Every structure is written in C-alpha cells, then in structure tokens.
Amino acid sequence: MTTVSRLARHELRLFASLALWLARRTEGAAAGQAFGYARGQGATMLGLAFVCVVETVGVSFMLRDMPVAHDVLLVLDVYTVLFVLGLHAACTVRPHVLTTDALRVRYGAHVDLRIPLTAITAVRRETRSTHGTEADALDLAVGSQTTVTLELAEPVVHTSVLGRRRRVSVVRLYADDSGSLVRALTPG
User: Fold this and answer.
1) Domain total for the chain?
2) Which domain of life is it from (predicted)?
C-alpha cells in the first residue's frame, strides 16, 4: 500500500468518525467494555477548531476583493476545521475496548493495537508527563500525559499510519477513568 493511499484511508477514517460523532455512535465498543480517553483533550481540540473558524472568517474578509484566492482559501479553511473536528471525533468514537481475550488500545484514527490479555504481565496506574524514546515502548499520550502502563510478556507489532512496523513490549496510554481500566485488567 502506498503512502498516499494510507493517508487517504486515514482521512476517510477521520471523516467517518465525524459522521459517527454527529450520530452519537461509537465504533467497536459493542464488543466489550469501553474506556474513553478524549476528555483530556476535548477543550484543546475544540479551542483549536474555534481558532480555525476565526481564521477562516478573517481570511475570508481580507480576501473579499480577490475571488479566486478567497474561494481557494475558503475551501482549505473549511477542510481544516473539519479535519480538526475529525481528529477529536475519532478519539471520541474509538475508545479503548476490553474484551474477554484482548485489550484494543486506540488513539483516534492513528492507532488500533490489539493486545492479548495473556500477553499483559503487569498493569499499573501511572501518570507520566514525560516520555522517553525507548525503542520498545509505545506512548499514546493525551494532553502530554499517560495514565496507564502495560508491560507485555511478548512484544506486539504496532503499525503506524504510514505503515512502519515496530515491536513494542511496553504500552503507555491515557484513559479518562484509569482506575477502572486498571481494575478491569487486574485479575482477581
């Protein structure tokens, strides 16, 4: 699959997420217990969308006497607003999902990693705001924080949006209710 087709698929997932968000539906959460993570970035993303709308109005006003430039930038600005809303919508409609045999760790339309429960050797609630560059760790921070750390007995393969594959044995993620996620993952 080419880079362009991967990016196009990512964009389609963002806009599909926007449709699901407007319909107040989630994707894949019916298969198990859902754990959201979008609350930690909601205000920031909606603030960014608001700034994009203000910029759209301002540029539209400044270019009112140049119709071609006005129309081109209006299309690009509206696309940008929809893209930013799609980023937030993807995080809202694609929560982490715990099933009977796996934890599906997600981050918007960017990451969808299935971790078998048998591969998880340790789980802890751990708030981290700095993240290293460990080759075997996947950090899925929201608002520059992770709240749950998973240590794996055997590495799982994470594939990036552009198709780069790497094996990870530590996954750090953010969950709105990290305590509930840790309790659900702790046998006992």
Assistant:
1) 2
2) Bacteria
Each residue of 87-103: pLDDT tens digit? 999 999 999 999 999 99
Prediction pTM value: 0.88
On whether both 59 and 100 belong to a single domain, the answer is no
Contacts of 41 (CB under 8 A, 6+ apart): 88, 91, 142, 143
C-alpha to C-alpha distance for 140 and 188, rounded to whole angstroms: 27
All residue ranges of the chain with pLDDT < 70 are 188
Could you list the residue range(s) of the whole structural domain that residue 84 is in? 3-31+38-93
The reported pLDDT for the residue numbered 188 is 66
